[in-house]
Design goal:
Layout lengths: L1 E8 L7 H10 L8 E6 L2 E7 L12 E2 L4 E9 L2 H8 L12 H10 L9 E9 L4 E6 L8 E4 L3 E5 L2 H6 L9 H10 L13 E2 L4 E6 L2 E7 L13 H19 L6 E4 L4 H13 L5 E7 L8 H11 L2 E7 L1 H14 L9 H11 L5 E3 L4 H5 L3 H7 L30 H10 L6 H11 L1 H15 L4 E3 L5 H7 L4 H4 L7 H10 L16 H7 L1 H10 L1 H6 L2 H7 L5 H20 L9 H7 L2
Parallel strand pairs: 13-14, 13-16, 14-15, 16-17
Antiparallel strand pairs: 1-3, 1-9, 2-3, 4-5, 5-6, 6-7, 7-11, 8-9, 8-10, 11-12
Length: 588
Amino acid sequence: MCGIAGIALRHGETAPAEVLARLDAALAHRGPDGGGQTVAAGAALVHRRLAIIDVAGGDQPLFEPGGAALIANGEIYSYRELKRDLLADVAFATGSDCEPALHLYRREGLGFAEKLRGMWAIAIHDRAARRVVLSRDPFGIKPLYIAETKHGLAFASEPRALLEAGLVARGIDPRARDELVELQFTTGAETIFPGIRRLLPGETVAIEEGRIVERRRRAALPEGGPEAIDDAAALARLDAALTESVDLHQRSDVPYGLFLSGGVDSAALLALMRRLNDRPVLAFTAGFDDPSAADERASARAAARAAGAAHEEITVTEADFWAHLPAIAACMDDPAADYAIVPTWLLARRARQDVKVVLAGEGGDEIFGGYGRYRAAMRPWWRGGRVMRARGILERLGLRRHATSAWRDGMEAAAAAAASPGRTRLMVAQATDMVDWLPNDLLAKLDRCLMAHGVEGRTPFLDPAVAAAVFRLPDALKVRGGLGKWVLRAWLDRHLPEARPFARKQGFTVPVGAWIARRGDRLGRLVAADPAVAELCPPDAVAALYRKPGKHEGFAAWTLLFYALWHRAHVRGLAPAGDVFDTLAAGG
C-alpha cells in the first residue's frame, strides 16, 4: 500500500520540479517509509512507500532491462506464482510483489493486468514505446485519478494531490454534489471535482503524447445466470476459494491483524485466519458507549474467545466524534458521507500501534447477497418489491431549494449495465452495488481512513476466485429463510458456531443521530450558516432539522454536517480549526 502520482507528458513538455514536490508531499501520509521519483522524456513518476513486502529491497520506481519503469499502490498477492512462471526469462532484481507486473507487461503488453491477482493502482512508463500505462484492479480496491493538464495527463492516488499540486483548480460539480447529499457517495468516472476523473475499476489505459489512445476493462464478476449446484458442493467450493484467498491475503513481511465486528463476514475471516496461522490472530473491534447504537462487541468477543484470538476493543465516544470529525472529513477527499468513517478511522489509529496490515470484511454483503435491500429488489413490484435507493436523503424530507431527480441517473445507468443476460433480480442488484457503492463508498472509506494512519487494508472477499465461486450460486444459496448470505452463514456454522451466524443481528450502526440531537440547537445554527449548505437548503429549514428527532432527520443532519466539513477542507482548501464547533465557527 503506497501512494503514486505523475504526469504522462505531452510532446515537448517537462514536469516542473515544484509540482512533483507538491505531489510527493500531498501523498506522504500514504507512504511514510520512503519515496522515489523518476523523470524522463515523456513522463515523471512519483512514489511514496508503505513497506509491506521486501521491506529492505522493494523501493520504487522499479526498472526492467527494456527501459520501462513501474510505480504501484497495492499488493499483487500472486507474486510468487508469477515469479515462478517468469523465471525462465527474467532475472528479478528485488523481492517486491510488484516487480512481476513490470516483467509481465513486457511479455503481455496491455494484457498484463489480466494475469494479476490482488489490489493495485499501477503506472508504467515504457520509454521505448513512448507511452505511459495506468491500471486499476477490477474491484476498485485501490484508487487512481486522472486529469488533463497543460503538461499532459496527470494522475494520483488521491484527488487532493492533484489539487494541492495546482494541476487542477478547486471547484465542485453540481451533479456529483447532488449525488453525494442524496446517496452519500458519487457514481461513475466523473468525481465531484471538475476536471478530475476516476480510472474505473478494472481499467487499463495506454497514454501517448499526454492522451489516452487505448482502453481495456477487466470485469470483476463472471457473466451468466445461476449455476446448478447443491448445498454440499457449494459449501465445499466456498471453503476452497475462501481458504486460498485468505492465505494469499496474509502474505506480508510485517505484522497483520483483523478488523472484527460482530457480523458474519469478519467472523468468517477470523475462522480462516485461525486455521491458517500458528499464532493467535490479533483482532480489533470498535463499539459505542451510547445505548442508541447496536454494540456488537459482545458478539465479537465471543467469536474471538472461541478462536483463541488476541482481542483489542476500543470504545468510540461522543467526545471522539466531535474532536476528530473535521480531520476524518478532511481525509475523505473523494467524499463518502458514510458514518462508518468515524469508527474506521479510530480503529486504524489504534491498530497502527501493533500492525501495518489489517484484513477486513468489505465486499461480503455484495458478493454473498447480504443487504435487506436485495431481498426487496428480488420481489416484483406487485409483491412489494422496491427499487434500490428510490428516495434521496434530503429529497424525502423536502429540504432542497431546488428539487431534482437527476441524482439517480448514475445509479440507473449502473443498474442497466448490470442487467446482463441470464442474471436474476438479486444478481443485478449485487452487480449494481459493485459498480459504484462498493468502490466509491465502502472501499474509499477503508482506503482513506486506514492510509491516514499508514495502515494497509486487505479485503479477501474481493478476489476473482471468490467471485467466480460464489456470484453465480443460485439465489436460494444466498437468500433463504429471510436471511441473506445463507451459504456463508452455513459455512461459518460449521467452522465457528460460537459466532452464532444464524442469529438475527441489528447491523453496524453509529449513534450519530443521538449525538447530533444533544447539540442540535448550536450545531444546527452553525451548519445552516455554512455557505455550501446554504446554497443547497434554506438556513431556517436546516436549523429546524437539527431540532427534530427521527431516523431520516438524523441521517440528513449527519449528511449536511459531513458535507459542510468536507467542503471547507477540499473546496475552500482550509485545514481543520479544532473540533467540529470550532471548525464550523471559523468559517472561511
